[in-house]
Amino acid sequence: MLRGSVQWRVLWLANATFMVGVTGVVRDGEGRMLLLRHRLWPEGRQWGFPTGFAVKGEDFRQTVVREVREETGLDVEPGRLVRLRSGYRLRVEVAFEAQLTGGTLEIDPFEILEARWCTLDDLPQGMQPVHRALALGDETA
């Protein structure tokens, strides 16, 4: 039987390595949701929540904090896990609720084209289907 570091190396080589995409369903004190129009997402599906990939060893809640700050300049407190599932190919998708705690909205123009606070009644057209489902509270989508 293999043990220790040799066992882990064999397991690493034999199994898929995943990228982890982390999304923050950010709400302000009025219950509105922060939606971003992402520059690098496909045309017609550019609207969604702040999202990015976790770096190796990063706590996924901290990924939400980091990504929201990088994309918008805002500070958030991550909350409840609302989605955890396998994604496209070798990706895992994670989403947390998050509450706005401060900062000043200043978008990163390299990644983000536009930001807006929305209610369920004014969600933008062209929203990623998974993100629309999260907005509507459908955690099974």
Automatic annotation (TrEMBL):
Annotated ranges, domain Nudix hydrolase: 17-140
Listed Pfam families: NUDIX (PF00293)
Required co-factors: Mg(2+)
KW Hydrolase (keyword) present: yes
Keywords: Hydrolase
PROSITE patterns named in the record: NUDIX, NUDIX_BOX
A molecular function GO annotation: hydrolase activity
Domain of life: Bacteria
InterPro entries in the record: NUDIX_hydrolase-like_dom_sf, NUDIX_hydrolase_CS, NUDIX_hydrolase_dom
Designated name of the protein: NUDIX domain-containing protein
Organism: Streptomyces radicis
